[in-house]
Design brief:
This protein is an alpha+beta fold. The protein has 2 domains: 11-142, Jelly Rolls; 147-218, Winged helix-like DNA-binding domain superfamily/Winged helix DNA-binding domain (Arc Repressor Mutant, subunit A, Orthogonal Bundle), CATH 1.10.10.10. The protein contains 10 helices and 8 strands. The protein has helices spanning 11-15, 18-25, 82-85, 108-117, 119-145, 148-161, 172-179, 183-195, 211-217, 221-233, and strands at 29-33, 38-40, 48-62, 68-74, 94-107, 167-169, 199-202, 205-208. Strands 1, 2, 3, 4 and 5 form a 5-stranded antiparallel beta sheet that branches. Strands 6-8-7 form a 3-stranded antiparallel beta sheet. The protein starts with 10 loop residues before the first helix and ends with a helix.
């Protein structure tokens, strides 16, 4: 993947031809994303579109009972603000930074103008939208069919893909919300992975010790999401 003048590692930004990137470079602002930072709230207008470099943004559905469940994640492979691409300016989900990181933001008006005038940017964002539809569909099936251990391994692998570190800054409370299960179930799954020597768990963080074995214990949804992304975008996660 080429490197643009900002030094960004975001796949969409780095996939733009130099002439196209030059048109938006002055509109991009670098920002840090601490854990729990709110990106957009359900029913509220988007202020910015985001292009993460590192870290992971969670797309969270809040049930009618008030229970939060993660339905998708975005990292360096994409952008946050799909409703803007599709002609809406209000977020249909709560989005926040689950794994701390950094990236680039663009004012809503500048982003909409850019995707309407720069065909390369529009096509990349449209293709990424397809990968998100696939990921959300796969997550729905995964939550219905696979064990907590398999789903936990899948989630940790996806988090690791979006970060340069093997350590995920994460509490079991947050992981239970992301997987849509009780904390007691997550506790058992984490202990199982620790006992197998696949991860190391300490307060507020989980470290992957054996990525290859983690991939083997994870459900097939992890590889399915990666393969579809490569097929659609032409890059690997």
């Amino acid at each position: 993947m080429k490197s643009n003048s900002t030094g960004s590692t975001n796949i969409i930004l780095n996939s733009l031809p130099a002439s196209a990137f030059k048109k938006i470079a002055g509109k991009l602002t670098h920002i840090e994303h601490p854990r729990k930072a709110l990106i957009a709230d359900k029913g509220e207008p988007f202020k910015y579109a985001y292009f993460p470099d590192e870290g992971m943004v969670s797309i969270v559905l809040i049930t009618t009972e008030g229970i939060p469940i993660e339905v998708g994640t975005v990292g360096k492979e994409g952008f946050v603000g799909i409703p803007l691409l599709l002609g809406a300016d209000v977020s249909d989900r709560k989005l926040f930074s689950q794994v701390p990181g950094h990236g680039w933001r663009m004012d809503t008006g500048d982003f909409v103008a850019a995707v309407n005038s720069i065909i390369e940017l529009r096509l990349l964002c449209q293709r990424f939208t397809l990968t998100m539809i696939n990921q959300i569909s796969q997550t729905a099936a995964c939550n219905r069919l696979h064990t907590i251990e398999e789903r936990c391994a899948r989630w940790l692998l996806l988090a690791h893909d979006r970060d340069t570190s093997r350590t995920v800054d994460l509490t079991q409370e947050f992981l239970s919300m992301m997987l849509g299960v009780r904390r007691s179930g997550v506790n058992i799954a984490v202990k199982t992975l620790v006992k197998a020597g696949l991860i190391e768990h300490s307060r507020g963080s989980i470290k992957i010790l054996d990525r290859k074995q983690m991939e083997e214990i994870s459900c097939g949804c992890y590889e399915e999401v990666k393969q579809y992304f490569h097929q659609t975008m032409g890059f690997s996660l």
